[in-house]
Amino acid sequence: MMVKEIERAGIDVVHVANMTAVSKSIGANRILKAYSIPAAMADLNATPAIQRQQRYNLMSRALEILNTDIKEQTVFE
Amino acid sequence: MKKVIMYLNQFYGGVGGEEKADYEPELVEGTVGPSIALSEMLEEGKVIYTIICGDGYMASHTEAALDKIGELLEGVEFDLLAAGPAFMSGRYGVSCAEVCNYIHKRYQKPTVTCMYEENPGRELCQQDKDMYIVKGHNNGAGMRKDLKQMTNLSDKLMKGEEILWAEKEGYFPRGFRWQIVLPEERTSAKRAVDMLKKKIAGEDYHTELPISVEEKIPIAPPRDGAKSRVAFVSTGGLVPIDNPDHIPSASSTRFGRYDLSGQTVLKPGEWKSVHGGYDQSYANEEPMLAMPLDALRRLEKEGKIGYLHPWFYTTTGNQTNRVNSVRMAKEIVEYLKADNVDVVIFGSA
């Protein structure tokens, strides 16, 4: 609900979420699959160094998605 | 005597709380927790097996979880699946919906689940002839009543009785239309005039043809992050260690706004998660699993993010209702607009 409301205000949103089906049903347009519920931004079993890289890759991916032309609600894995 | 299978999450299945959210599907012979009560209330059948699965496992490994349930049910004969009630728990509601969809597709058996109207699982349950979501309460205090409603509908299904319309039976409308003769003679003309009279008198009236108003927000064109002003907003429940704004663990009505100027990392011990819907220990050990500040700073430094808004906005997405979500988002938008932010990366648990 918050994502949709922020988009309604004219601010573009990339929604990083684990439950992408929920995100889609609520109405997010650009959706990026997160790692898990308790640890959205990296694999909780990975080493700190790998997690750091995963976070960076995930946020880089979010920026790519922001810059991707889509015609309908899209989930990026 | 008909045979019922019941699906429960790890909590109601008695396995454990959040620390057991990754629990893989298990088939228990007979009844556990709510399936004991359901089985006792049923007239037409008994619960013969209870499936228990962690909400986190179902959410993160849906396909594997459903495959496992399929394996566990190999050779098991049953007549109906009951799932939940899931109340306002988003993950549990989604799990119930996934399991109902899977069971109905694979075995063509009727499914009955139950959840609160704002549960996101509602939207995910397929709308098929034999699939019902009973209107449930928003927390466990309504367990007994919810189970009773599930029982009534399940008994009717197993008896092969006619299931009447949604309002009459207490399930959420599924959008099917069919012809029936009403018990008392009230033609559509009479009903329409009654409705009109009520409308003129300023009384409550209910349309028989509700029109869905769920609107889509137009998709924004591509945007270059390097030329954007970016903010990070989260419903993951991450707050400063002393939780100065008293952000609640569930049903949040407020958000926190924290200045990260000059900071490049979030340090363990200075932040914690208050989210009551997942195991917080990972985020407590490494707050950047919820808010990736180091990555955002690095992208800002590399010029891939034009400008990073210095404030971090955070609340708890756990069981937070629509009204409060919309209001908090509007309040956050005011802050963002004041700094000409044009992009939000939004992190959810």
What's this entry about, in short?
Helices cover 43% and strands 17% of the residues of chain A. Chain A has helices spanning 2-8, 20-26, 48-66; strands spanning 12-17, 30-33, 74-76. A three-stranded parallel sheet of chain A has the order 1-2-3, with helices on both faces.
**With helices defined by DSSP (H or I, 4 residues minimum), what is the helix count of chain B?**
11
Q: What is the total tally of β strands of chain A?
A: 3
Low-pLDDT segments, ≥5 res of chain A: none
Main β-sheet, spatial strand arrangement of chain A? 1-2-3
Q: Nearest-angstrom radius of gyration of chain A?
A: 13 Å
| Poorly predicted parts of chain B | none
Task: Looking at this protein, list some descriptive labels.
heterodimer; A: 77 residues; alpha/beta; 3-stranded parallel sheet; 3 helices; 3 strands; 43% helix; 17% strand; globular; B: 349 residues; Rossmann fold; 2 domains; 6-stranded mixed sheet; 11 helices; 12 strands; 18% strand
Give an account of the 3D structure.
- The complex is a heterodimer of chains A (77) and B (349).
- Chain A has helices at residues 2-8, 20-26, 48-66; strands spanning 12-17, 30-33, 74-76.
- Chain A is globular and about 40 Å long.
- Chain A is α/β, with parallel strands linked by helices and 77 residues long.
- In chain A, helix 3 (48-66) links the parallel strand 2 and strand 3 (74-76).
- Chain A has three helices and three strands.
- In chain A, strands 1-2-3 form a three-stranded parallel β-sheet, with helices on both faces.
- Chain A has one domain (2-76).
- Chain B has 349 residues and is α/β, with parallel strands linked by helices.
- Chain B folds into two domains: 2-169, Response regulator (Rossmann fold); 225-347, no CATH class.
- Chain B has helices spanning 34-41, 55-60, 62-72, 90-107, 121-124, 143-159, 166-169, 188-200, 281-285, 293-301, 322-338, and strands at residues 2-9, 26-29, 45-53, 80-83, 111-115, 131-135, 229-234, 238-240, 256-259, 271-273, 307-314, 343-347.
- In chain B, strands 2-3-1-4-5-6 form a six-stranded mixed β-sheet, with helices on both faces. A four-stranded mixed β-sheet of chain B has the order 9-11-7-12, covered by helices on one side. Chain B has a two-stranded antiparallel sheet with strand order 8-10.
- In chain B, helix 1 (34-41) packs across helix 6 (143-159).
- The longest helix of chain B is centred in the N-terminal third of the chain and has 18 residues, at 90-107.
- Chain B starts with a strand and ends with a strand.
- Chains A and B meet through helix 1, strand 1, helix 2 and helix 3 of A and helix 2, helix 4, helix 9, helix 10 and helix 11 of B.
- Strand 1 of chain A pairs parallel with strand 12 of chain B, so a sheet runs across the interface.
